[in-house]
Amino acid sequence: MSLGIDKNNHIIYEGYVLYGGRALFPAPHLFAIAIAETPEEALDQLKQSNHHNRLLFREDEFDPVSMVRRGRVYEPNGSQPTQCCVCPIGEVELSEAKRESSGVVRKQLFCYERYPLCVRVSSRQPFAAIGTDAGYSIWRIVSNDRTYFDEELVTMRPLYFLGAIPDLAPDNIPEPWRTKVQETVGKVVDSMYRANADSIVELCRHAASASLFAHFHEQITDLDKTDLGRLAKRAEEEGLRLVGACGKTVADLHSRIKPNMQMQHNLGSICDRDAELAVQCLSFILRDLGYTRSQ
Fold first, then answer.
1. Are 188 and 165 in contact (CB under 8 A)?
2. Residue 105's closest CA among 91, 124, 119, 126?
């Protein structure tokens, strides 16, 4: 099955688009998509592709609770646009089709055919960047099933949950550490869809340290006690047990980045889920310290 998009009015057609394609009402949701083995590659491909040369994702199902997205992927077919014969819509086109004695009308369409994901991408669970430069999200393709019509139905989950870091309330952050907290948290937000897991954990450690130090700065005189592990312990001593636990979690995750720690304790390398955990821990620290707009 193929897709065609009318050059003039953007009506979407499905079927054997070059001859006999039928219009889809209501129109499906179509998104530009790029698929690669890493999030960085997928995002770069999305930004570098031209408007009509991009892959298209046709969303068939989206569950906002489980954040599961299902749909089909199409790629451009030949030169764009292409003259196609499609089934008529409305009385004017019906009259035209009768005059032609063919039952179809000619239109200029941007044509797309099914994208053979399993052939083009070697990774079993590749990443997908969906959207445009102005707004995009990163997803992991967790399964790829072939339908009866020989199309591939992909199932995706978000790499990181949207809105993981709440908006900061700068007035609630003590001076003179306000700028430092904003800067370090901003780097986490900017890197969530770009950096690898190690870098995200590293940035979360900096942001968590800055946030906790801003909270305890009047009580701390020894700069050697400003590392995240000691700040987390201080939080627990002050009754902020969950804040301390989150700080220790980020600190422990950061220690696993070091190759010597991995070898010494037989630990695996940091993965995407670890980075997501670090982001969620940082989010809790910020909220519990009262540094965010949403409490």
1. yes
2. 91
Range of the domain at 72: 2-158
**Could you report the per-residue pLDDT of 226-262, keeping only the tens digit for each?**
689 999 999 999 999 999 999 999 999 998 887 777 6
Same domain for 183 and 84, yes or no, is no
Pick the last residue of a domain from 158, 186, 202: 158
**Helical spans, DSSP H, in 34-83:** 39-48
Q: What tokens were used for 4?
A: 């065609």
Beta bridge partners of 138: 129
CA distance linking residue 207 with residue 228, whole number of Å: 10
Output the pTM of the full model: 0.62
Q: Length of the chain, please? A: 295
In sequence order, the 6+-apart residues with CB closer than 8 A to the CB of 59 are: 28, 29, 30, 31, 69, 70, 71
Residue with tokens 């190690």: 198
- Take residue 196 and report the two structure tokens written for it: 């690898």
- Count of helices and strands (H, E) across the chain: 9, 11
